[in-house]
Amino acid sequence: MSNDFGIETVLKRLGIEETNKGTSTGSEWMDTGADYITSFSPVDGKPIGKVQVTHRQAYEAVIGKAEEAFKVWRKMPAPARGEVVRQIGNALRDRKEDLGKLVSYEMGKSYQEGLGEVQEMIDICDFAVGLSRQLYGLTMHSERPGHRMYEQWHPLGIVGIISAFNFPVAVWSWNTMLAWVCGDVCVWKPSEKAPISALACQYIAAEVFKSNGLPEGISSLVNGDYKVGEYLSKDGRVPLVSATGSTRMGKKVGEAVGARLGRSLLELGGNNAIIITENADLDIAIRGALFGAVGTAGQRCTSTRRLIVHKSVFGVVKERLASAYGKLVIGNPLDEKNHVGPLIDKDAVEMYLKAIDKVKQEGGKEIVEGGVLSGSGYASGCYVKPCIFEAENHFEIVQHETFAPILYLIPYEDLDEAIAYHNGVPQGLSSAIMTTNMREAEQFLSAAGSDCGIANVNIGTSGAEIGGAFGGEKETGGGRESGSDSWKAYMRRQTNTINYSTQLPLAQGIKFDI
Ligand code: UN1
Q1: Of 229, 231, 240, the residue nearest 262 (C-alpha)
Q2: Residues lining ligand 1, CB < 6 A?
Q3: For ligand 1, atom 7, which residue shows the shortest CA distance?
Q4: Which atom of ligand 1 is nearest to the CA of 295?
Q5: pTM
Q6: At the fourth CATH level, which superfamily is domain 272-466?
Q7: Candidate list 117, 120, 216, 267, residue with the active-site label
Q8: For the domain with range 7-102+128-268+477-493, which CATH number is right: 3.40.605.10, 3.90.550.10, 3.40.50.1980, 1.10.3720.10?
Q9: What is the Rg, in whole angstroms, of the alpha carbon atoms belonging to the chain?
Q10: First CA to last CA across the chain, in angstroms?
Q11: For the segment 372-430, what is each residue's pLDDT rounded down to a tens digit?
Q12: pLDDT (tens digit, 9 = 90+) per residue, 338-351?
């Protein structure tokens, strides 16, 4: 293992061994035998560690503990649960550098972005602490005299969380911190491509639960591939499954959960575009598009995949982008002089190469050339060159989310046409318009504008703050996580009507006298 970035010390400080158990209800870990997942770093191709896969019997034990824990946790006042989450936020503050480094090493995003991811976890903890005193229900006026009506929110029970490799820890936090203040208990199945970062989080959370004298089962971890995900999605004891990942995976989870009339919260693929109008501030537009397209090596669900550019500025945008791409330094993401790290694994490289072939076949014109990097510093075989193609929106490959730094440039003549291109894909996560013209901006944000869950003006498509609801429409799955009133997904609503009169009048004026 490379010592260059002190990763060995980081792993030790976070409690990670070479061989790890993978099933936990908090501080207790189950031995589940000889079936392991090995996590390889895309940075240098070296193994980071391995975790045991959760088998059915261990899963059953986890659910049993979670059910018991729910009985205790749901009775604790929400602000007291918030206090526990506050302590988790502080524990994350203490481990920010270590966890950020591990995320960077295991997933391949830059160290800055690794730190940003942990900051996102801290931010959602803070948000959840405040929320723990604001789980408001409405009160309404009853139509009957001497009656009072209101609604209140109760916890759901066990929340299953299936997370993706690209945000291996932040997306877990978005779900878990809210679910915890809401009174739910959580069972997390992290991506099999980033299980080590998940172990680190489980250790951090478990320590806090233990020091507060809370039972096992509030924070559980299971590991494995889609089969372990299926345990959760088919399990009637898990009222909500929140899944982040590909549309293909989300359809399977949604179907399985739907078949038992459970709830799912899906945050799936995006095919995010920025419209650059003739009135754009091009300095902002180029910088926004650049980070959107190459940040996290194009592996965010919010990554910018399409640039829809007005014909009058198409040439200059193309030139300036090509020149910016020329200055990108690709390499070890833990080295802060590099802008772009590796893709997650060789399968991802394969998909990237196939997409390039496909766009060329369909008639795309290469503007910045792609390719796989080899030689010193690129030994993992996962480093690729961010590339740009001039393409048409209807190309099959353009309609498709490829999790890689490939950007498609599409020219347009008027804004209606641009918006039609923009919305003319199956996904609907994030979107942006670059313009200094108020009419253009408002048209983009209107009901006839962007059809996405997130629509920005003069900001790229990625890098959303936790305070807003995060998620999207169409094949993105319709779920909302993180800020605003997303917490409602983790609770059940109850309407209460109280009669304090001496009569029993019926609603709608119905007479039923004997
Ligand atoms: C994701 O890619 O699944 O908005 C989440 C962003 C980040 C979260 C991305 N805050 O880009």
Answers
A1: 240
A2: 120, 166-167, 171, 244, 300-302, 462-464
A3: 463
A4: 11
A5: 0.96
A6: Aldehyde Dehydrogenase; Chain A, domain 2 (3.40.309.10)
A7: 267
A8: 3.40.605.10
A9: 24
A10: 84
A11: 999 999 999 999 999 999 999 999 999 999 999 999 999 999 999 999 999 999 999 99
A12: 999 999 999 999 99
